[in-house]
Amino acid sequence: MDVRYFLERRLTFIEQLYENAASPFLERIRKIEAEEEPFIPKYSEDPEPPFLAEWIEANDSLQVLGRSCVSMLAASFHVYFKTWEKQLRKPVTPVLKPTFSKRGWFAGYKSYFSHYLGIRFEESGCNLALLEEIVLARNRVQHPETITTHHSHYSQEDLRKLQSPFFVGERELELLSAPAARDSAWLLPPQINVTAEHLHGAILEVRKFVEWLETSDRLWIRSPSRSQ
């Protein structure tokens, strides 16, 4: 089986899903900000910006869409590794299982490929922290802690693992990058903010990693399905 081919189909699907589904929400936001029909404000002494509720709804919809796509990306990346595990016909041994259970499946497969094939993910030149954060973000999105909001936030435990969170908004990124404000910023965990740029950047990193892994001679030599 050409595992990479089927992963690429999934990645392409996620990209087109986001692009097509995001369009109406982006257009609604644009019309509200440009004061175009049907969002032409009437005179009012209310200090609240006109159509604020509609703008928030459209923006929240974009965020839910982006986070859903990140969840799909993490699931696709996971099943990619599981499929290679089947291709290699080498199960996860009891020695490796603690890594999977304690540190997650990405760390688990990092140990798996190193153990069986001598392939070190660190040699890929890819942003492994981002690949791990994709999984972390998916877990936070899929397990919300409050019913009062559509937003998802990093936990304090997440922030201790991450030097610089990837899925954050521009304003929060500025706060986190300021040396004087960094420690205090951790007191309020930032939202998991997924823009089109975030999603495309994450997908690109997965593609880069898979391209590197698939060109590894050790991977193809040891694959029974290719040696027959």
Largest sheet: none
Question: Which residues form runs of ≥5 with pLDDT under 50?
Answer: none
What overall form do the CA principal axes indicate? elongated
Give the percentage of residues in beta strands: under 5%
Tally the structural domains.
1
Alpha-carbon Rg, integer = 21 Å
Percent helix: 55-70%
Order of helices and strands: HHHHHHHHHHH
What does the model show?
This protein is mostly helical and 228 residues long. The protein contains eleven helices and no strands. It has one domain. α1 packs antiparallel against α9 and α2 runs parallel beside α9. The two termini are 12 Å apart.
Compile the SSE list and pairings:
Blueprint: H1 3-34, H2 52-88, H3 97-103, H4 105-117, H5 128-142, H6 156-161, H7 170-177, H8 179-185, H9 196-214, H10 217-221, H11 224-227
Helix pairs in contact: 1-2, 1-9, 2-5, 2-9, 3-4, 7-8
Task: Give keywords.
228 residues, mainly alpha, 0% strand, elongated, 11 helices
Short description:
By secondary structure, this protein is mainly alpha-helical. It has 11 helices and no strands.
